[in-house]
Structure formats: C-alpha cells, structure tokens
Design brief:
This protein has one domain: Porin. Helix content is about 10%, strand content about 60%. The chain has one helix and 14 strands, in the order H-E-E-E-E-E-E-E-E-E-E-E-E-E-E. The strands form two sheets. A twelve-stranded antiparallel barrel has the order 1-4-5-6-7-8-9-10-11-12-13-14. The longest helix is centred in the first third of the chain and has 19 residues. It is globular and about 50 Å long.
Amino acid sequence: MTGIHRRLWLALVGASAAAFASQAQAQSVDAGVEGTTDEVRRGLSWSDGEISGSADARVGFGGFDAGVRVAMLRQSDRHADADAVADLTLGKDWEAGAFTVRTEAIGHVFTNADSNMNYGELGLGARYSIGPLQLGTMAWYAPKQENIGGDNLHLRATADAGLPGFPVSVFAALGYTTGDTRDFRSARLRPAGDYTDWKIGAEYSMFPLTIGVDYVGTDINTDAVSLSPFADLKHAGDRVLARVRVSF
C-alpha cells in the first residue's frame, strides 16, 4: 500500500471512530442487522454465492455522515478467501436547488484474506425527487491500487418509488463498470473486463422490519475461462435474492 493510500485508510478510520465516539452530539444515529441469501454488489457475489449476514451503523454530525458496515464473505474466492469486509464511509450531502449532490469516500477492509485485499474509492452523484419517485445517478472511482490490479470506475443510475398508501416500494438500477487493467487482480471487480449490471426489486418496510426481493444480473459471459483466481465467474450471473433487515 502506498503512502497516499495508507493516509486514506487512516483518515477514514479516524473519521469514523471520531463520529461514533461523539454519538451524544450526533444529529442522527441509524443502525441495523440484515440477512441475505447472497451478498451481491454491482451484480457480483461477494459471499461465494452463499447466505450472508451484516451489521451497519451510521452517524450524522455537522452536515457530514460516517458509517460502517460489516458483512460476512464466507471465504470468498473473489477476495482471496476473506471471511468478512468492513466498509468505512465518510460522506456529505449538498443541497443544490431541486437536486441533492452526494460526495463520499469509502474504504473496504477485508479480514483473514490470504493477502492484502484492502482498497478505497471515491463517490460523486446526485438525486432528484418528483413526488414519490426518486431518480439518482452516482459514480465511484477507485484510483490505481495494487490490490485491484489497476483502477476501477463504476457508474450507476437508479429509480425508486413508494406505492401511495402502502408500506411497499419498488426500485430499479443500471450500472456499468470499466477501468484500467494492470494485472490479474483487476478480475476482482471486473471478472471478464468491462460489463453492465442491473437490478430490479421490491421491499416491504414497517419499522423496524424490512423484507425485500431483488433480481440482479450482468452481461458477463459466465461460461468463459479466466486465468485469474479472483474472477469467480460462476457467481457473476443472474439470480434472485431475498433479504430481511431489522433496524434500530
């Protein structure tokens, strides 16, 4: 890990620790636990196609928010047999007329992996609400890092809406991932090169319980042969997910 990446990790960890230590002064605190049939991100399974559990917490303070989410990875091939990942986030929403602009920095820290799998990325996006409909777009960029075999850019467009009079919402998302490839580790985030992913779903939410069903997929050729041990192509195809969350 280079000096600049080390400083990024320290800044993220320090900011998150400071935020949670000052919960008494926080403007908002949210937390919860979740179980899912598969920990899928950007159309790719991060838990070897197996059931996963996670816990998360978020603190809002002084216009910023800091969050941590820890998810089970079940010795994922994609992440060198890592048992779990902690996602540390420091972000801020900026009001710009009818739009809300989102900026954030995220550090992904992996535990019990066969080698160092940690990496960081930066996010920038915006969302716009029209009645019950919310439209959004977001870009996450991971600068060139040894642990991801180059750099990585993920673009995403989302739409979600609540059904009037019912505690049910529906949503859809379309994403595209690209980047520079230096070595075989790039297959962690792009198993067979640039690809498109999608997700549609619905969820029922009545505090503190949320139940959701998602259909996710990619245009990755899962029958291809990859020389990278991180590609995990068998867990990059279409699937239906179920999840249950309890909020605090």
